Amino acid sequence: MATQKESTAPTPGDRYVQSFARGLQVIRSFSERAPRQTLSEVAAATGLTRAGARRILLTLQTLGYVDFDGKLFALTPRILDLGFAYLSSMPIWNRAEPVMEALVQRVQESCSAAVLDDTDIVYVLRVPIHKIMRISLGVGSRLPAWCTSMGRLLLADLDDDALRARLAASSIEPLTRHTLTDIDAIVARVLQARRQRWCLVNQELEEGLISIAAPIVDRAGRMVAALNISGQANRTSAKVMQETMLPALVGAAQDISRLL
């Protein structure tokens, strides 16, 4: 009898092109930790044979998405076309940027917008004012949803079963001494965010970093993204951020929601 994994795994057919999926695997194997790789490294990272990885890499090279210096493969700037195709198909973010810039000027803290993708949030727009994180963030950056203010707020829009399934699929580990790692405790924070329609996370992702998020909703009231502001704990406490910045953040999120 087939296992559940076998029965639910995609199989080649009219609705699933395996070679295309493998090509995306190869693209995703490049990262900040592995910006340049040998053929063997790509094959090992993707689980492909050397021959299979080589065919995909040479195809990407022919199309201009990969560069090869005779030993190492690396992505080229053309790969950005794939990501910006999403942003250009969502003109809302062009219209949201002035709203976010006005918010940054008002609160004097960095502002970001993100959407939920599987167990992560993906940044779609960012207006920084200070470098407050060790992590360098920009459009396309990913962070775990379970320990971020925007992530927990976006998870709150899922039903309870989907929420627990998403958390079960997440790699939950202590990132700071403040990080919640118990799933029930995280669920409680997500449910709190669902009730109050905003979420604050205090130094769980990174020591000294506090962030607060508000929802961006479409006409049907569905949460399509989240907006947040982030600050340093040694400059602005969580209590002060909630009392002085949350109203402005909620107002900006509502303004962007109206643009939808």
Could you characterize what this model shows?
Keywords: DNA-binding, Transcription, Transcription regulation. This protein is of the alpha+beta class and 260 residues long. The chain has two domains: 75 residues, Arc Repressor Mutant, subunit A, CATH 1.10.10; 174 residues, GAF domain (Beta-Lactamase, 2-Layer Sandwich). It is 43% helix and 19% strand. It has eleven helices and nine strands. The strands form two sheets. A six-stranded antiparallel beta sheet has the order 6-5-4-9-8-7, sandwiched between helices. A three-stranded antiparallel beta sheet has the order 1-3-2. Helix 2 crosses helix 4, helix 3 crosses helix 4 and helix 6 runs antiparallel to helix 11. It starts with a helix and ends with a helix. The N terminus is likely disordered.
CA radius of gyration is 20 Å
Give the overall pLDDT as a whole number: 89
Order of H and E elements: HHEHHEEHHEEEHHHEEEHH
Helix content bin: 40-55%
| Oligomer type | single chain
Write the layout of secondary structure elements.
Elements: H1 4-8, H2 18-28, E1 36-37, H3 39-46, H4 50-62, E2 66-68, E3 73-75, H5 80-88, H6 92-107, E4 110-117, E5 120-127, E6 142-144, H7 149-155, H8 160-168, H9 183-196, E7 199-202, E8 209-217, E9 223-232, H10 238-244, H11 246-259
Features:
Beta-Lactamase; 260 residues; transcription; 43% helix; disordered N terminus; 2 domains; 11 helices; 3-stranded antiparallel beta sheet; 6-stranded antiparallel beta sheet
